[in-house]
User: Fold these one by one.
Assistant:
Number 1:
Amino acid sequence: MRFQPLAKLINLHDGYRCRFVIDGLQLLLIQQGGTHYLLEAQCPHKGHLLDEASIELGCLTCPFHHYRFDLSSGELLAHSDEPCRPLRVYSPAYEGNEIGVLLE
Ligand code: FES
């Protein structure tokens, strides 16, 4: 496994969101309530980008069809049409003063 840095910890703050493309993988790094979340950046329903998703009470709501996902587990919590798979979530990795992801 190799550490792929994404951001310096000093630059993160509540409300931080940034999308990264690493090895063809689109990742969304979020800080909310002092916690770091690393998610796939596209909605598993129809692929809308989640940069502008609303986040409230531990739930992320896709702006397109308003499907709701648990921010920690990625579980699909609410849907208006056919259900989709859960949102993929990744464990943030830390090295020195950086946050990143471990890749194979
Ligand atoms: S694309 Fe996200 S809810 Fe449909």
Number 2:
Amino acid sequence: MAKKTKTKRAYVYKEKSPLEHYRAGAFIVRCLDSRFWRVAKHFIKSLGIKHPDPAFPAGGAKVFASPFDEYETEHYLGQIAKSIKLHHTKKVMLFSHHDCGAYGGFAKFKNDPEKELDFHRAEHIIAEEVIKDKFPNLEVETYFIDEKGIIRTN
Ligand SMILES: [Zn+2]
């Protein structure tokens, strides 16, 4: 006879999580670079956005404007589709940031902040078009983060 195995839940950390379903205030796409997590989080909170659905790919908005490979854009468009289906999302907020390694860092812009911002503005125009093409009714907002704060680019 097979030995009866008991599966135990051995918690390594305990904290309660809410189980209520929700409507996402926005789908957020921002870079995994942790230097700019805090400011983005505070900004989103300051807007009163509740239950954001987040995605943290390297480069943030880059996945829609100049993806690393052809599958990246499709993958994140799929994530937006799921957020809409599951959490009735009506808005996407795209972020990219200063000195982003996925873009080659600040050095790629010869340490010129205006050059860097202009480049990101152009990227955001493309990213917004790619998302609007697939989801015409979705509101898309684009932002650039630097060491002093957050700039709206559309
Ligand atoms: Zn980055």
